[in-house]
Amino acid sequence: MNGPATDTLTVGYYTAGDLPAIEPVLIDVYAEVYATEAAADPFFSVAKFTERLHAHARQPRWGCALGEVSGSPVGYAYGFARTAEYRWNGLLTPVPAADLEETDTRTFALCEVMVQAQWRGTGIARTLHEELLSHRIEERSHLLVEEDHPKVSALYERWGYQHMGTMQPYPDSPRYNSMIRTIL
Questions:
Q1: Cβ distance 77 to 130 under 8 Å?
Q2: Distance, CA of 171 to CA of 87 (rounded, Å)
Q3: pLDDT digits over 13-63, tens only?
């Protein structure tokens, strides 16, 4: 990790019951990381993110890995378990039906991985990702990457994710590369 030798990353794991305590931190980090996007596209506004965060936290087994350096938040990763009733709405490309079958423990929906700009390229995102997945009981992890971010897709490929198709999960959202990997 870049930075002074005294900087130490600590990662805490939180569940939906902890959300009231950590929500202001999650929103503040989001507002900083997505400031440019939020100024240009209402989908990325803090208000819309907060709506999505609350909806995600109501889902089964919501979990969040929150990283801090010297007591200050630097990033987080969060997601939830998909249930057997989940339907893959928003798929724009054909995917084999067997890949879309869900159980209560098959797929972890990884909703967000974000790190403040000054800490990118230090390994923090990967550490948060792996810490989050270490708490999961699901067989696989699924995430979305905006189509116009090929470097981010390539990063997730290095982490073991494979391209599954293209999705637009909300009518007002961008199109995303749908990516999946086995949880080890």
A1: no
A2: 16
A3: 999 999 999 999 999 999 999 999 999 999 999 999 999 999 999 999 999
Which neighbouring-strand residues pair with 12? 66
Type of residue numbered 104: D
CA 106 – CA 100 distance, rounded (Å): 10
Structure tokens at 3: 């930075």
Helix extents (H) in the chain: 19-33, 35-40, 46-57, 97-100, 124-134, 150-158
pLDDT in tens, 129-180: 999 999 999 999 999 999 999 999 999 999 999 999 999 999 999 999 999 9
The answer to whether the CB of 36 falls within 8 A of the CB of 155 is: no
For residue 99, give the amino acid letter.
D
